[in-house]
Amino acid sequence: MGRSDSIDRRRVLAGAAGTVLAVALRPAAAAQPRSETTESAIRRFAGDNPIRPGRVSLDLPPLVENGNTVPLAISVESPMTAEDHVRRIGVFNEKNPQPNVVTVHLRPGAGRAQVATRIRLADTQRITAIAEMSDGTYWSASADAIVTLAACLEG
């Protein structure tokens, strides 16, 4: 392998590093457009049923340094019996490319109506959790998160 081979390899690596940097620094305006509105995603989840505030607790940090991994915990007041339990919990956002972050299905055997996960947030926004109960009622809670380093920039 001669000197010219190593120079060519260096040029290729330098070019690849520049391309990666250019992609990483792409402005937020290049983010993928939303597939549907938050309201339509919520209506797809709950139909025309009224959604009442209460019974749902949403734990989300108010200030998020990195939107790529945001801790989220949801609990719903429910005895989780066969007669009275949470059927599912939907989590919705205002600005990510997909408005429905996650839907969790529960059964009475779960024991507690609690879930915890990490989500990605594209920008500062409001997160809403909605619980569907076994009696057909819907309950909700919302929280705002200020995101300093956005995630979900695709496109």
TrEMBL record:
Gene3D superfamilies: SoxY domain. Residues 44-152 form the Ig-like SoxY domain. InterPro entries: SoxY (IPR032711), SoxY_para_1 (IPR030997), SoxY_sf (IPR038162), Sulphur_oxidation_SoxY (IPR016568), TAT_signal (IPR006311). It holds the Pfam family SoxY. Signal peptide: none annotated. It comes from the Bacteria. This is SoxY-related AACIE arm protein.
